[in-house]
Specification:
mainly alpha, 10 helices, about 0% strand
């Protein structure tokens, strides 16, 4: 309560602001007058809370999400941004996504975006699992897309994340190539997860072929 910086950080992360005593007593008076036995009065920024709390995507909070979208025009804004990104050429799209990621990561870590190394693991710069959820939720909300759960596994770099996001934002027209690209990325991730270092492109291609053959057999 005494440290203003900590208070501001918590409010930004959780979306909650402390109630003034006068407001709390006024709300208590309303509850007593109405005879309500179970009620909570909270000063919450639902957008900030939803970024921090994965369960906020549950159906029980549909009304809150709808009200926030209606008030902020969030759905329309995300659709507009997505359309703009889809018009970009592949390299320009990747660079734009890198810039967007740096802004988001910088905001979460309280670091100036230009100081972030796009080729350094996000884990090394201080991202933890909760921050990862915050990052993914924020990106999904701002872009209007669904990001694969494995996107943040094994501490990817901003550059690698931008590459993966570019395929989600603007999928390759050739579906077979898109599938191969996804399989290759998954194979590399699994190799890192199981501590298989230094896989060559040929070895990754072999893993992809094995996965494809297994999928067809099933």
């Amino acid at each position: 309560a005494r440290n203003e910086q900590i208070k501001e950080t918590l409010a930004a992360r959780t979306g909650g602001q402390p109630l003034a005593s006068a407001d709390a007593l006024r709300f208590l008076g309303h509850a007593l007058a109405d005879g309500t036995s179970q009620v909570a009065w909270l000063d919450l920024d639902w957008g900030a809370l939803a970024r921090f709390l994965p369960s906020a995507a549950g159906s029980r909070f549909d009304l809150l999400r709808h009200l926030r979208t209606t008030d902020s025009g969030g759905q329309e804004n995300s659709s507009d941004l997505l359309r703009e990104l889809q018009r970009l050429e592949p390299e320009e799209l990747r660079q734009t996504l890198k810039s967007l990621l740096k802004d988001e990561v910088g905001s979460i870590l309280r670091v100036e975006p230009e100081k972030l190394d796009e080729n350094r693991s996000l884990l090394e710069v201080g991202m933890d699992s909760l921050m990862g959820v915050e990052l993914m939720t924020s990106l999904e909300n701002s872009l209007g897309i669904t990001i694969p759960l494995m996107a943040l596994s094994e501490g990817p770099t901003i550059s690698r994340l931008a590459e993966r996001l570019s395929h989600v934002v603007k999928p390759p027209e050739n579906t077979e190539e898109a599938g191969e690209s996804t399989l290759a990325a998954t194979a590399k991730q699994l190799a890192v997860q199981h501590q298989v270092a230094g896989l060559s492109d040929e070895q990754v291609a072999e893993l992809v072929a094995d996965v494809k053959a297994t999928s067809k057999a099933q």
